[in-house]
Amino acid sequence: MLAYTLLILLAGGLQVLAARVKVTWDVGYLNISRDGSTTWRAIGANGQLPIPPIYVTQGDILELTAINHLDKPVSLHAHGLFQRNSAYYDGAGFTTECGIPPGSQFTYIIETRDQSGTYWVHSHYGTEGIDGLRTALVILDQDASLLDEYDEDVLLALEDWGQEPNDNLLERLKTLSLVGMPPNHPSVLINGINANILQPIRFTPGRRYRLRVISMSFTYWFKVRLPGHTLQ
Q1: First and final CA of the chain: distance in angstroms?
Q2: DSSP letter at 97?
Q3: pLDDT in tens, 134-181
Q4: Strands 117-123 and 152-161
Q5: Cβ distance 41 to 72 under 8 Å?
Q6: How far is the C-alpha of 17 from the C-alpha of 5, rounded, in Å?
Q7: What is the value of pTM for the model shown?
Q8: What distance in Å separates the CA atoms of residue 208 and residue 224, rounded to the nearest whole number?
Q9: pLDDT tens digits, one per residue of 216-227
Q10: At residue 131, what are phi and psi to the nearest 5 degrees?
């Protein structure tokens, strides 16, 4: 009986430590230049691009509310999360849901008790994700002792970016063969900024850094290297 009571108390304590992190995205169009050369109608949240990354701690419950101001449905997928017993929050448009209709809203309840690490959230409807509706999701490890292993946490979110709305590209692709076609996304964004104009990230000798590298690409594979270092 005593052991059973202790288990209940421990479970209750874990629930107290867990937080509900509430994030609201007003999803809408905005005209923006992200590559420094072309401006076109992209999709962002709360009038912003890039969309700020989401940070939670393992065990937290993320409540992500999407308010759809577009003229088409929206769905949001937390890429890499297991969604055990919660496939209805997986956000795969026309697979696990029909999408959020224009003028409507929906709240995704995302539990993080089983995972930690670096993931991303993106639209799973049409080309909305590659048009900007995406951001990193960082689940910090619940084990605070791991923080002693490094001095600073650095996020590197990599995106592909084109020169026009991707609905236009999609229509052309329907009439062409994909074999041998070059990608139409010539710019690489790092943390939302064109890699060619991004200010260098400064590292201080003697300090230890944790690099969180996440590919949020829809068309490219990225090769990442640090001059003077070997990655394994």
Answers
A1: 50
A2: B
A3: 999 999 988 877 778 889 999 999 998 887 777 777 776 666 655 555
A4: unpaired
A5: no
A6: 19
A7: 0.84
A8: 19
A9: 988 778 888 888
A10: -85, 5
Write the single-letter amino acid at 156: L
Does 51 have pLDDT greater than 80?
Answer: yes
Angle at alpha carbon of residue 124, lines to 163 and 220, rounded to 5°: 45
Tokens of 121: 């959230």
Q: Name the token pair of 128.
A: 């909305």
- In this structure, what DSSP letter does residue 148 have? G
For residue 22, what are the CA distances in angstroms to 54, 64, 100, 139? 10, 6, 18, 14
